[in-house]
Design brief:
Pathway: Amino-acid biosynthesis; L-histidine biosynthesis; L-histidine from 5-phospho-alpha-D-ribose 1-diphosphate: step 7/9
Shape: globular
Oligomer: single chain
Largest sheet: 7 strands, mixed
Strand content: 15-25%
GO biological process, one term: L-histidine biosynthetic process
Order of helices and strands: HHHEHHEHEHEHEHEHHEEHHHEEHEEEH
Protein name: Histidinol-phosphate aminotransferase
Enzyme class: transferase
CATH architecture of the largest domain: 3-Layer(aba) Sandwich
CATH class of the largest domain: Alpha Beta
Structural class: alpha/beta
Keywords: Amino-acid biosynthesis, Aminotransferase, Histidine biosynthesis, Pyridoxal phosphate, Transferase
Helix content: 40-55%
CATH topology of the largest domain: Aspartate Aminotransferase, domain 2
Bound molecules: pyridoxal-5'-phosphate
């Protein structure tokens, strides 16, 4: 009898596995710590909690949990259309924007195709390429920032997708908005540009993020991806969206599951879009948190990468050791072994007291 391994599609057996940050409860149990004393600043979650308007709407929606969700996300897409002055047909909603990253692969990738991305960039891009038998083409960052000219040079006739995030994860850096638009316009027409805007709201308020809607209007093959997981604090509910041409959105809608986004998430997202006081406060507090961590690192003599997102890279020498030592002290950060940056950790900007605790423990651990 063949084993299950022998029966499996060979590409599944070589598929790398995404390593998520551990939940607080697991760390507490493993290390015998009080979960209430642990802070998790590892997964770029919102330290202010979820959008209050979003949670209120989610609670109300729970009362109707016996019903299937609206498979077309009609109300949310109408709301998004109004917000962005696009048509509802230009939107596709996903189970987190992670699902949309994969759906783009499902629509466009065949074995042997090439997918261009930065290195380091969000780990999921590479996983999606490999999942569909495509070849990840990784273009090293320069000064921790995407090298757009080199990415353009990496494009070949086999390139089908370019994944690009601004701000980038894990570096938190951005390219100039004008340069990003020039890059998009310079790509040949057989390439689809996935513009991952998971953290763009932290930059948008300062006018430093590109508006990609003109690219869509020009008929370019580009999709913007947004998430409710970061600024809106709804990571647990799993909801994000893409906006593109109607044709692009229709292709993605064709390959998703009919009820890919649950009703609680849809209700929360619709309400959270109006939670302007909350989001403005989060952007403000994130900015002071970035300054606090940067300043603290300077005092400790540690190099950090000035970030425009809600996290920051800090060079600590032995990232695995510092990650481990911090965790024993109740501070969970992200080691970057998986991103080939073993000397660095990535820390999510927390509340002011969390940032202070991080810096205090970092000082002890690095002394
Ligand atoms: C967090 C993140 C996302 C969003 O993930 P969700 O699936 O929406 O929670 C997308 N891209 C990048 C680069 C991220 O860091």
């Amino acid at each position: 009898m063949p084993t299950l391994q022998e029966l499996a599609n060979p590409s599944v057996l070589t598929q790398p596995v995404y390593e998520p940050g551990k939940p607080i409860e697991d760390v507490a149990r493993e290390l015998g710590l009080d979960p209430d004393g642990i802070i998790k600043i590892a997964s770029n979650e919102n330290p202010a909690g979820p959008s209050p308007l979003g949670i209120e709407a989610a609670r109300r929606a729970l009362a109707q949990a016996q019903l299937y969700p609206d498979g077309g996300c009609v109300a949310l897409r109408a709301k998004l259309a109004e917000k962005w002055r696009l048509s509802p047909e230009q939107f596709v909603v996903g189970n987190g924007s992670n699902e949309l990253l994969e759906l783009v692969g499902r629509v466009f990738l065949r074995p042997g195709d090439e997918v261009v991305m930065g290195a380091p960039a969000f780990a999921v891009y590479k996983l999606v390429a490999l999942l569909f038998g495509a070849k990840p083409v990784e273009v090293p960052l320069v000064n921790h920032t995407h090298d757009l000219a080199a990415m353009l040079r990496a494009v070949t006739p086999r390139t089908r997708i370019v994944y690009y995030a601004s701000p980038n994860n894990p570096t938190g850096t951005i390219n100039n908005a004008g340069e990003i638009l020039d890059f998009a316009r310079a790509l040949p027409p057989h390439v689809v540009l996935v513009f991952d805007e998971a953290y763009t709201e932290f930059v948008e308020a300062d006018g430093d993020a590109p508006d990609i809607r003109p690219l869509i209007a020009e008929g370019r093959h580009v999709i913007g991806l947004r998430t409710f997981s970061k600024l809106y604090g709804l990571a647990a509910l799993r909801i994000g969206y893409g906006y593109a041409s109607e044709e692009f959105a229709a292709l993605l809608n064709r390959v998703r599951q009919p009820f890919n986004v649950n009703a609680i998430a849809q209700a929360a997202a619709i309400a959270a879009l109006d939670d302007h006081d909350f989001t403005a406060r989060c952007v403000r507090e994130n900015k002071s948190g970035l300054a606090q961590i940067e300043e603290g690192c300077r005092e400790l003599g540690l190099e950090c990468v000035p970030s425009r997102a809600n996290f920051m890279l800090v060079k600590v020498g032995d990232g695995a050791r510092v990650f481990d030592a911090l965790q024993r002290r109740g501070v969970i950060v992200r080691p970057l072994r998986g991103y080939a940056m073993p000397e660095w950790i990535r820390v999510t900007i927390g509340t002011a007291p969390q940032n202070e605790k991080f810096l205090k423990e970092l000082k002890q651990v690095c002394a």
